[in-house]
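subagent[fold] <- orchestrator: predict structure for attached chain, return tokens only, no commentary.
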Amino acid sequence: MPSVVEDYVNEKKVNAFLEINNKLEAIFEHQDKFFFLDHTNGPVRSVIISIPSIADVLSQYNKITRDLSSDGIRKEYDEDFNDLKSLYYLPYILSSSGELVASTKWNITTIGCGGEYIYMYSMLPYAIGYKRTADKYAPNISGAIKDALDYYLNNENSSYYKLIDEGSREDIISKIQELSNDYYYFEKRVDSTNINSIEKKFGGVLPKSSLGSNLTCKSDGYIHTSDYRVFVCTTPTIIYKIEEINPDQCEHEISQLETQWFFILFLLLVVIEVPLLYMEIKHKEKINETLYNKIKRLCNPSKFIKEYDKEKVDKANAIYQKLMKTSPDDKDTLYDLQSQAEEELGVSFVDLEMVEKLKKKVNPKRFMKPYNPEKVTLANELYSRLSKENISYKDIIEIEERSKKL
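subagent[fold] -> orchestrator:
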């Protein structure tokens, strides 16, 4: 039985996993990624900051100027900062769980499916550098941010070109959060691995960008014109992964179900066995019933009231009264009452099961091997009497008594 319980619980667990996985696939049935634009019309907040030095940048990467491996960092630094005359930081706020709480003007959130997990991150502008070639007609910070968004939305070379979805990321997130059952849920965690943080790229000159969070965004390049460079970054990747609610849940369920099933089986056995046991006891009582008790049971006047028969009620009553005045050891009177009951009431005292049991006991074949002539003679006589159709109860009692010699 425990194996049946284990199979049942394990099958439930497998079905629960398939259920949550199918619901996940249903969300991403028509596309494996969603892109949502979050855009605000409020004023742009910006903070002017100093252009980082190469020494600051190398220090952030834990390198020294003469380290040959710093060549790549130097090259990137030159591309980012060498032609700038001013630099502005656009504050943003990350929650302690890596979500973007607030940003300047706009951000584009990507939510994708990677098989049995979901990933999410946002891309946003975080700094603007004006080049030395910029003149008085260069767009202000708000204009530069707007131009950058126009590029991502409308330039066919953009990875977001014509891919922005209707609705908001909250629509998908709420669907993800609803994906749970008795065994599984989607655990949310943050991938804080960041080998190219904006703090490193900017040499540590950026103001604190979050409220109490030790997470940082990843530098994701820039777009630029002859006048400015808009630096963009991506937030830490948030992963939603299918996890067990409780690894010990199956064992707990198996233990519970086994207890319940054993209790139910016990009750079933009680329900079945008790009546059978009662019937067995009654059956044995009937087989071993004395003649006195047989007359008392078979000649009780109440037996003839259900299907009312006045004459038989009177005769049974008369026999019953005599029995009440007779001693259980008065065999002669009891046999007379038994004969009277058979004749007047039509009841039979002969127990066919008892007859068959005696037949097996007195069958002459039992005494042929080893051969016993005396027992064969007695058994043959008794077996012959038992085989008569109209054998009396008195004869059966006598045969039973004589069979004790076999």
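orchestrator: received. Logging for downstream: The chain is about 45% helix and 20% strand. The first strand starts at residue 33 and ends at 39.
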